[in-house]
Amino acid sequence: MLVSEVPAFKEYWYPVAYSGEIADKPRAVRLLGDNYVVWRGKDGTLGCAVDECPHRAARLSQGWLEDGEIVCPYHGWAFNTSGACTRIPQQDDDLPIPPRARTLNVLVAERYGLVWVCPGIPRADIPELPEAEDPSFKVMHELMEVWTTSAPRVIDNALDLAHVAWTHRNTIGDTSASQFLSFEINRDGHKLTSRVSYNARLTEALKANTGLTGEGFTVRFTNNELVQPFVYKDVMEYENGLRHVLFKTATPVDDTHTLFCQFIARNDNPDEEKCANIIALDRQIQSEDRELLNNIRPEFPLDTRTEMHCRADRMTVEYRKILAELAHENSDITPDSEWARPFVNPDKQKTPA
Predict the structure, then answer these.
(1) For the segment 294-327, what is each residue's pLDDT rounded down to a tens digit?
(2) Do the beta carbons of residue 31 and residue 252 sit within 8 Å?
(3) Distance CA 268, CA 241 (A)
(4) Cβ-Cβ contacts under 8 Å for 214 (sequence gap 6 or more)
(5) pLDDT higher for 197 or 81?
């Protein structure tokens, strides 16, 4: 599957920048293989449009802002955040501006300190992430960067807790603790959740960031949620009551590049020094994922027979089925392969996977 070939993906919201990055100049963004421009109007409102002037198709992102209006660098045409043209320098002042002289706008909004864009008619709102707006949690934005892989690969990696012991063996993983202690999974439509427990090695970094003490291992409970096809949430619970909430978004730039964003929420009110340590460790962990994923072919197989699977892969197998359902919406193809079968909720598994 290639993300650009699935029309349903245009019906979701994607973060494209931090809110603070959209200020005094236009910002070029790329989403699902198409180019857009985002800018902020004089009153603070946002505009987002296909990155082409309706006059001669120049890139508006190469222009500039005047009183919150974007100016085309080719002939000086200006547009407000609603897309309407407000100036045509080459036209006599007594002539009206043609109504068709407007940019092709798409939906844009702000939430959680991020700018979100939806290039189609949204089937869902910007994801509800309660802890990100809960005053009892402290939110930390950790990174936003382009990875050379596809968005499904990024989310598949997030849902795959079995890789932690191996990919992250130099940070938080331990190859001697590869199996889960418990594993429960549930699916409701395109929502997917799991609750997993496993042994986490008590490294000095983990102890510093969590307040845990002792030696050896601690049992970590992880509550995973596929919020939307390219939005992931993980609530990590520790024995001392700490809740470390991880949010990951994978904005599909195109078929081979993904704008990866990660931010977290914590209920222990960490001070400035502790925040810096938490962010540093999380960035190190994500660099391990990035190095691995950048070297995996970006094409994402939906047929579960294409790649090998084991019992610990149940979350990622269901993820493939969800994407397969979205890929075949409005399609003339009638899927009859194994991955298209309806989901059957498996018995809750309490034994090691």
Answers:
(1) 999 999 999 888 888 888 888 999 999 999 999 9
(2) yes
(3) 9
(4) 202
(5) 81
Residue 301 and residue 226: Cα distance in Å, rounded?
Answer: 18
pTM reported for the whole predicted model: 0.89
Contact 157, 319 (CB under 8 A): no
> Which residues, in sequence order, are CB contacts of 272 under 8 Å at separation 6+?
none
Q: Which two tokens stand for residue 131?
A: 């802890």
Q: Specify the range with the lowest mean pLDDT, choosing from 87-101, 111-125, 208-222, 257-271.
A: 208-222
Nearest by Cα to 89 from 97, 39, 81, 52 = 97
CATH class of 130-327: alpha beta
Helices within 98-242 (DSSP H only): 151-159, 164-167, 204-210
Q: Copy the structure tokens of residue 202.
A: 């008590």
List the chain domain ranges: 3-118, 130-327
Confidence of residue 343 (pLDDT cuts 50, 70, 90): very low
DSSP collapsed to 3 states, 286-322: HHHHHHHHCCCCCCCCCCCCCCCCCHHHHHHHHHHHH
As a residue count, the chain comes to 353
Level-2 CATH architecture, domain 3-118: 3-layer Sandwich (2.102)
Q: Which amino acid is at 194?
A: S
Q: In the structure encoding, which two tokens stand for residue 339, read together?
A: 């991955």
- The CA distance from 28 to 282, in Å, is 28
Q: How far is CA 263 from CA 15, 61, 144, 232, 234, in A?
A: 12, 27, 9, 11, 11
Share of the chain above pLDDT 70, in %: 93
CB 111 within 8 A of CB 102: no
Same fold, 3-118 and 130-327: no
**Is 303 within 8 Å of 132 (Cβ atoms)?**
no
